[in-house]
Write a structure and sequence with these properties.
The protein is of the alpha/beta class and 264 residues long. Helix content is 47%, strand content 17%. The chain has one domain: Vaccinia Virus protein VP39 (Rossmann fold, 3-Layer(aba) Sandwich), CATH 3.40.50.150. The protein contains 13 helices and seven strands. The chain has a seven-stranded mixed beta sheet, with helices on both faces. 35% of the residues are buried.
Length: 264
């Protein structure tokens, strides 16, 4: 039986071809830029702006007061409930940030010992760990929580570190530099005390709505990812790999900035 061609076949095929060749309308660059600008304005309104209104000395005293008091006392609990404790351990346990082979490790702003606990668990037995914090009560809380006599605990300021140049081959800095008006103040000191080829695990709040909201509770600022990368590079701190707690965090751009950095 002969196959009969429909008189609608040709027009339908032509229409399909035209739809294929005609790209779907896309948002213009201007529209995307306007959207980013609006988000930035909203985040700036939400973000704690104390750091821009007072002197650095006054702000540092305020931060010390926050962590000396009740908020510092519940820091470990907050880390547990937010799953930062669990996700942080996974980064080190799965060697996404590998502490194997490190001999001199510095934990910056050690707080309640959240990261130090993982370092003690996964670093080589002969590694020496130094933990410091701006707040004396936090140093005491960290020491009591770790219940381990191996780390050296001290009170120190990340902008004026009491260590010689090139002392450490591994540094962890979890949610500390957001308490600085300019990241260079702390990162330059970290670069100074790190050995060339040494590695840094840096975590900090990002300029997202979540980061801005967090800043209101912890009296801190946020950083733009691209701008922070440029600051690091200017100090000889090269971003090796951006890390994410989970695939969901990466998809949602959540959890802040987490990056492995190499001292060149």
């Amino acid at each position: 039986m002969p196959i009969m061609k429909s008189r609608w076949a040709a027009p339908t095929l032509q229409l399909a071809n035209r739809m294929k060749s005609k790209p779907l309308p896309r948002k213009t660059k201007k529209h995307a830029a306007d959207k980013r600008s609006k988000r930035k304005v909203i985040n700036q309104i939400v973000e704690n702006d104390l750091i821009r209104r007072v002197s650095f000395e006054e702000y540092r005293d305020r931060v010390r007061h926050v962590y000396d008091g009740p908020q510092g006392a519940i820091l470990a609990t907050c880390s547990l409930l937010s799953l930062h404790l669990t996700f942080g351990e996974r980064l080190i346990r799965e060697r996404k940030f590998d502490v194997g082979g490190a001999r001199q490790i510095l934990d910056v702003g050690s707080g309640a010992g959240q990261i130090a606990k993982h370092l003690l668990k996964y670093a080589d037995p002969g590694a020496r760990l130094t933990c410091f914090d701006l707040s004396l009560p936090m140093v005491r809380r960290g020491r009591n929580r770790l219940k381990n006599g191996l780390p050296d605990h001290l009170v120190a300021d990340v902008t004026r570190l009491p260590f010689d140049d090139g002392t450490f081959d591994c540094v962890t800095c979890g949610y500390v530099i957001e308490h600085l008006p300019d990241a260079r103040l702390g990162l330059a000191e970290l670069a100074r005390v790190m050995q060339r080829g040494g590695r840094l695990l840096l975590l900090t709040s990002e300029d997202t709505f979540g980061g801005a909201w967090t800043s209101r509770f912890w009296c801190c600022r946020t950083y733009n990812r691209r701008e922070l990368r440029e600051i690091c590079h200017s100090l000889g701190l090269v971003w090796k790999e951006e890390l994410w707690f989970t695939r969901m965090h990466k998809a949602l751009r959540a959890g802040g900035i987490c990056v492995e950095i190499v001292r060149t």
